[in-house]
Amino acid sequence: MDQHTILVVDDDKEIRDAITIYLKNEGLHVLQAKDGLEAIDLLTERQIHLIIMDIMMPKLDGIATTFKVREDKNIPIIMLSAKSEDTDKVLGLQVGADDYVTKPFNPVELIARVKSQLRRYMKLGMFEGAKKSISINGLLLNQETKEVIVNGENVRLTAIEYKILELLMIHAPRIFSIDEIYEKVWNEPSYNAENTVAVHIRKIREKIEINPKEPRYLKVVWGLGYKIEK
After folding, report:
1. Is 179 exposed, middle or buried (0-12, 13-18, 19+ CB in 10 A)?
2. Are 32 and 90 contained in the same domain?
């Protein structure tokens, strides 16, 4: 993992430095930025594999920065938030964050989440025996290039959105419960995962469906979970 570069974005220098120490102890390379504007500049200059970013920051906050990053990059983003910022956490997921950790955080938990996100982002062919591409009624997922195409148009998904769609398409039309989706995609036990999964499902629908309120592909089976309709 020593080749991976993590960008830590927080206006509190003590928090930045503490996280940097934890990450460096794991053999990771670390860059720092004190606000979203500095983070965007670094992303244009350096190769970054994962971002840890505070929500509340001056100049450009974590929400706005995540939205801007997602215009052309799919690297994992872990947001840091205070317990009082539940609404912001949901908004962060909606604009493209992959995970969040609540302050004050446990260093062991933060490192575990970093490693989990890096494994998902860097590893090709997450599901064994999968074909290189899957096509269902005009919805095409290319596992080699990680592209998603709907009726000939490229769709930009975040890393987590892609993995959810990949899971459902590989096994279509099998129904996956919320807990199953979380455990297979996040690779950790499900705990109060309903809101987290629901936010990502909604974002996928907004990107692949003509009418997200009447989805053609990503269907809910009430009381059971989600599936891709063949």
Report:
1. middle
2. yes
